[in-house]
Amino acid sequence: MTQHRIAHEMFAVDAASQKLGIELIDLGEGSATMSMTITEDMVNGYSITHGGYVFLLADTTFAMACNSREDSAVAARCDIRYLRSTKAGDVLIAQAVERARFGRNGIYDVTISSGDDVVAEFRGDSRTIASPK
């Protein structure tokens, strides 16, 4: 069995993440790092990155981290705190780390940065499920 098979298979067919140019940088047991370059199509009326795109990057990175083991998992709850704005041309890096895993549940934190600046903090709770057929 390929290491992190579930995460890799899931990401390979994730049309939304692929179309937005999200790239997998690193994947470990309970961790993931991904990147996304902000395009002109991703900014809002204030010419800053629409929060939904930041959330999507964090959520995708969270999904990769909680699916990096032998069990399939989905989000049970998540939230985000926006700390700084970004703009078109900025490269966002999301780093997810597993904080706890118990029973069918997991807790993950994702930090989204642009350069040296932390732009958002995301926390997600996962729940393992029966593997999709």
Automatic annotation (TrEMBL):
Keyword hit for Glycoprotein: no
One Pfam entry name: 4HBT
UniProt cross-references to Gene3D superfamilies, sorted A to Z: Hotdog Thioesterase
Annotated keywords: Hydrolase
GO molecular function, one term: acyl-CoA hydrolase activity
Thioesterase domain location: 48-119
SUPFAM superfamilies (alphabetical): Thioesterase/thiol ester dehydrase-isomerase
Signal peptide: none
Domain of life: Bacteria
Family: Belongs to the thioesterase PaaI family.
Name of protein: Acyl-CoA thioesterase
Species assigned in the record: Rhodococcoides kyotonense
